[in-house]
# Entry
Amino acid sequence: MSKDDQTRLIKEKTSEIEEVQKKLEDSKENLYDILELDITCEDGFGKYKFKDT
# Structure
């Protein structure tokens, strides 16, 4: 692999990581917003369903 190919690959992977980091940061901020707004869901949140026992 040439130096140019290595550089291109590293830049592409770095860009992919930055995109994922941005999505994670956005998700984290959304969760903080939910906490601040005290939003509740009777059927559970996300994939976790809470049942009354």
Summary: The mean pLDDT is 83. The chain is about 65% helix and 0% strand. Residues 6 and 12 are 10 Å apart (CA to CA).
